[in-house]
Predict the 3D structure of the following.
Amino acid sequence: MALQRLRTETRHSEIVIHNGTVYLAGQLADDYSGDVVEQTKQTLANIDLMLGEAGTDKSQILSVTIYLKDMARDYVGLNQVWDAWVEPGTAPARAAVEATMYTPDVLVEMTVIAALP
C-alpha cells in the first residue's frame, strides 16, 4: 500500500495511512472554552471524523496517547467521557500523561493509531 497523507499542512498531516495502519496527529476540541468533559467529547468526535475519512472507525483503534494539562484535576472527567465512548471489548492500548499544552486553554489532546478493516 502506498503512503497516503490527508489534510496535509506545513508542519504536519492530520492523517497518515501506511501499510494498513492509520496514524492521527494530535486531536483537540474545536472550542477550548469548555471544561475537560466538553473538550474530551469534542476531541473524540474529531477522532471519529478523522478515522471515518481514513476508512476505519474507533473499533479498529490500536493505541491512544492522551495528553492532559492537569492530570489530578482532569483524569476523572476524561475517563467519564472515554468510558462511554469506547464500546465494550474494543478498548485500545492507552497511555495518559500530563503535558504542557501549546496554549493554556487546551485541556486534552490525543494521538491515535488504528488499523484499516
